[in-house]
Amino acid sequence: MQQYSSLPEQNSSVDKTPTLLTTMQQLRAELWLERSLNQLQSRLNDCLLSVCSPASQPKTTEAEIFQTVVDELGIALHSMTVAIALFQPRAKIAQVCYVSSSDSPYPPLIYIEQKEQKLELKLQAVIAIEDLQQLESQQPDEVWRLTDDAGAVIGWLMLSQTSPQSDQKALTASQSQLRSQLLARSTKQCVAALAQLQKIQSLQQQSQQLGSSNEKLERTNELKNQFLANTSHEIRTPLSSIIGFSQLLLAQGYDPTREHHQEYLRIIQSSGKHLLTLINDILDLSKIEANQLEVEWENINLPEICRNVLALVKEKAANKGLQLRLKLDPKVTTLVADPLRLKQMLLNLLFNALKFTKTGAVGLDVLHKDGFIHFIVWDTGIGISPENQARLFQPYFQIANTLVNRHEGTGLGLTVTRKLVEIHGGWLEVESEVDHGSRFTIILPVKPVGEAEGDEVDEVEEGAKCPMITPDSALKILLVENDLANAKLIQIYLGTLGYQVIWVKNATEMWSALTDFSPIVILMDIYLPDGNGLKLVEQLRSEAKYQKIPVIVQTAMAMKGDRETCLAAGVDDYISKPLDLALLGNLVAKHGKVLSAETRFIASVQESGEC
Fold it and tell me: How confident is the model at residue 386 (pLDDT cuts 50, 70, 90)?
C-alpha cells in the first residue's frame, strides 16, 4: 500500500510542467508589455523635455508626439502597422496623418466586416466616421479612440495585421492577449503627453508675454523718468523768469514809462505762455488717452490762421538768423476744424523745425489736393535718422539735439500732434534725411467725415477784439472768486472795458451782495470755501428774482464733459482757466448787453410809475 501512495506525487510533478510553462510565457508577455510602455513613456518624456530646451534647439510639436507613439507601438507589435487618423470636425471625417515605418511588402489593411471591404492605412487616406465606429466595435480591437480631458475626440489609433517576413517574428499568444492593454494604456500616455505639451507651451507663452511686458514697463519707466527730469527743468526755467522779474518790478517800483520795465513784463508774459504750453502738452495727452478731449468745429479762414501762426514763431526764427517762408495754394480758403487745435499742431511742428535747424530756412506750405489740405512744415536742419523716425511718436521720446546742450520740451509735442491730426480725421507723414532737413505733412479733410452741412460757427471766437462799452451805473458785474490773484486780474481787465466788478470770496458774501444790487452778469468760480458754485447756480435759478441774471462759470474744470456739466446746472456760458481775457470780455459783452437792455427797460417803467 505504501509503494502506491507515492505514485500520485510523481504524477503531480509531471502534470505541473505545462502550467509552469504557461506561467513563464505570461510573465514574459507582461514584461514585454511593461517594457514597451516604459520605452514609449521614455520617448514621450524626451519629447517634452525638448520643449524646455534652449531656443537654439528645435521644439517638440503635437506631430512629433503622434509620430513617436506610432513608431514605438510599431516596434513593440512587430509585424503590425500602426496609424493615427485625426478627426476633421468640419468635414466629419478622419484623415490618416501618421503611420509607423514597416519593411513589410504587404500593404497595411483593415477589414471592415459590415461593408466587407478592406481599408488601406496610408498617409492622407480618408476614413468615414461611420466606418471608424464600425471598426471600434469589431473584435479583436483594432481601433482605439483618442479623447482629451474634456471628452472631445482627437482622433483614432489603428492597427493593421500584416503577414510576417521570414526574418520577423509575430506576437506570441500571451502577447496577443495583452495587446488590448498595450493599446489602451498607450492611448492614455499619448493624450497625457499632448495635455502636458499644451501646458508647457502655454506657460512659455505667458512667460514670454510677461518678459515682453516687463521690458515695456522698464522702457516706459525709463522714458517717464527722463520725462520728469526734462519737464522739471522746463517748468522751472520759465518759473524762474516769472518769479525773478516780478521781484525786480516789486523792488524797483513799477513805472510804465521805463523801457526796461516793459521788457520785464514781456519776459514774464512770454515765460507764462511757455509754461502754459508745457502744462497743456501733458494735459492734452492725458485727455486724448482718456478720450476726453473736446474739439470745437469751426469754419476756419486758412490764410489768416497760417499767417497768425508764423507771426508767433517769427521772433524765434529771427533770433537764430533763419528765414521763415509761407507758401499758400490759391485754392486754399477755408477748413472745418478746431482753430485752437490746428494752431497747436502747426506750432508744435514749426517750433520743432526751428529747434533742429541751425542755418537756412523753415517754411510752411499749404496745398489743396483731392479734397484734402496738406500742411507741409519743412526745414533745412539736421534731419532724423531712420531709427529715430521709428520712435518719433512714442510718448516722452526726444531726439538728441547737438545744437543745444540739453533736451528741450517734454517729448510729448509730436505725440499730441499726431493724435490731434487723427481726431480731425487726417494723418501725419514724415520725410527726413540726416543733414538734409525734414518734412512733416499734416493731411486733413476739408470737411470732416460726418460733419453736417450748414453747421453754425460759435459767435465768440478766440482772440477776437473786445468792444469797448460805455460805462454807466447798470454795468455792474458780480465776481464770485476765492483766489486773490485771479480776482484782481479779472477786476483790472474788465475795469478797462468799462465794467464795475464787485468781488466776493464765497457764497455767503454773494448772497449778501445780491441784496444790495442786481448785476448784469455773475462770474462764478466752482470751488468755493463754503459751497459749490454749480449748487449756487441751481439755487439762483430756483428764485424768480435771480433767474434772468446771466451766469458765466470761470473754472479750472477743463476735462471732457465739464462744460456740459456746467451748462446742465443752469449756467449761461463757460470759460476755463487760465483765462483768455479777450474771450472773457466777449462772453461778458454777449450776455451782459441782453440783461442791460432789460434792466434799463424795467428801470424806465418803474420811474414812470407804470409797474
Answer: confident
Instruction: Please state which of the ranges 128-132, 404-408, 435-439 shows the lowest mean pLDDT.
Output: 404-408
- Reported for 597-603, long-range contacts at CB under 8 A and 24+ positions apart, including other chains, are 598/548, 599/474, 599/518, 599/520, 600/474, 603/474
Placement of cell 512770454 in the chain: 270
Cα end-to-end distance, the chain, whole Å: 156
Q: Taking Cα atoms as reference points, which of 574, 530, 531, 532 lies closest to residue 551?
A: 574
Element (H, E) at 186: helix 179-252
The packing angle between helices 259-289 and 179-252, to 10°, is 160
Write down the residue that cell numbers 513613456 correspond to.
Answer: 41
DSSP 3-state assignment of 454? coil
Q: How far apart are CA 295 and CA 293, in angstroms?
A: 7
Average pLDDT over residues 391-415: 61
Residue 459 phi, psi (nearest 5): -65, -35
Q: How many CA atoms lie within 13 A of 5 on its CB side?
A: 2
> Within a 10 A sphere around the Cβ of 544, how many other Cβ atoms?
7
Lowest mean pLDDT among 17-21, 167-171, 276-280, 460-464: 460-464
Within 253-338, where are the H helices? 259-289, 302-319
d(CA 18, CA 24): 10
The strand pair at 531-532 and 500-504 is best described as: unpaired
Closest listed residue to residue 514, CA positions, set 542, 481, 477: 477
